[in-house]
Amino acid sequence: MMPLILFVLGLNVDVDHRNRMEMNGVFTWELGKGEHSRILFRKDGVELAELVYNPKHTDKENDSISMENLVVPTVPQKPDIVLQLTKDDITKGMKMTYLFDAKYRINDRTDAGVDTPPDDAINQMHRYRDAIYYKEHSSNELKKEVIGGYILFPGNGDPIEVAKAKFQQSLDEVNIGAFPLRPNDVDNRKLLEHFIQELIGMRSSEILEESIPQKGLFYTTIEPKGAMYMILTIDKDVNNGFESIINGLASSIIMGRMGMEETQDIQAIRYIAPIIPGGHIQGYYKVARANLKRVDDASYPIRIRFDVDDWTPLERPARFGLVKYAYRGVCKSREEFFRHCEEQAVH
Predict the structure, then answer these.
(1) What are phi and psi of 345, to 5 degrees?
(2) Domains of the chain, earliest start first
(3) SS3 sequence, the chain?
């Protein structure tokens, strides 16, 4: 898997492995358990991907799979390979997690001559996705973590027929499936190469749109201690009814094409104060949920949509300044927001 990821990422990518040995200028890879099998891929100092082999340490550790923020509340889970891709378009450093299991057997052969993966192996992928969660150190809240799970098995078959097989079609339907992988089978290997190329090239907003709800796009009723108020300039191209939004009658607000600043955590945005060019801050909404929405824009088709309610008007409108600086949102703490509204109040 490591050479495949490196091939897809291309040239000028730095590879960092804790247990690598160099002999005559050639790296040989020693893969141990957990942290000892952790491989990082970086370019220009920016982490692109992380690959972990056999991340579970022992059967006694049923609360962790030896990777930061990933927990298993029930019985131990031991995927063979964990691939995490780092994305920055919604939240800086957000990691998308994918699991791979290698199986050395096949289940059957279809009428088209395509080998199929074992049923129990596919079922294991479903269990992994349901069993492994994301949990921040400062919170007891569990969130879905695994986006997809895939079997690597020694199957054979014509690549055209393999692409039509159920275990390949299910990749688009539920993000669980399988890839035949045999030595010297270059044609079927390309199916896996193309799949990983798509994952690496997709923005996290696109990935999440096609997935079950994942961390970063779901709001609970428990407000975090660091809840933020976001002053947001309304993008007229994707939001109808400026007046209704400003007057507290909106049920949703769609962000502009550039999305949020990479340094902001979407989970912390709990209030939105909308503004329009030439206008002032009139009040703020409470955010109920963040979703993804496809809009009619070829360059930026996927936007963040906030479902909002509970409009609270300010006693006096407040100036903001140049609204062009708030198309990606300007986030303030509660104290900072109300101090700004008081200091910039229109008399």
Answers:
(1) -65, 140
(2) 2-209 (no CATH), 228-343 (2.30.130)
(3) CHHHHHHHHCCCCEEEECCEEEECCEEEECCCCHHHHEEEEEECCEEEEEEEECCCCCCCCCCCCCCCCEECCCCCCCCCEEEEEEECCCCCCEEEEEEEEECCCCCEECCCCCEECCHHHHHHHHHHHHHCEECCCCCCCCEECEEEEEEEECCCCCHHHHHHCHHHHHHHHHCEEEEECCCCCHHHHHHHHHHHHHHHHCCHHHHHHCCCCCCCCCCCCCCCCCCEEEEEECCCCCCCCHHHHHCCCCCEEECCCCCCCCCCCHHHEEEEEEECCCCCEEEEEEEEEEEEEECCCCCCCEEEEEEEEEEEEEEEEECCCCHHHHCCCEEEEHHHHHHHHHHCECC
Mean pLDDT score across all residues of the chain: 79
Tell me which residue of 90, 88, 92, 93 sits closest to 259, measured CA to CA. Answer: 90
Confidence of residue 97 (pLDDT cuts 50, 70, 90): confident
Question: Which band of pLDDT confidence, cut at 50, 70 and 90, is reported for residue 138?
Answer: low
Identify the top-confidence range among 66-70, 252-256, 270-274: 270-274
Give me the pLDDT at residue 49, please. 79
Q: Are 329 and 299 in contact (CB under 8 A)?
A: no
Is pLDDT at 44 greater than 50 in this prediction?
yes
pLDDT score for 110: 93
pLDDT in tens, 328-340: 889 999 999 999 9
Contacts of 243 (CB under 8 A, 6+ apart): none
Q: Phi, psi at residue 257, to the nearest 5°?
A: -65, -25
Residues linked to residue 85 through DSSP beta bridges, in sequence order = 49, 96
Cβ contact 69:82 at 8 Å = no
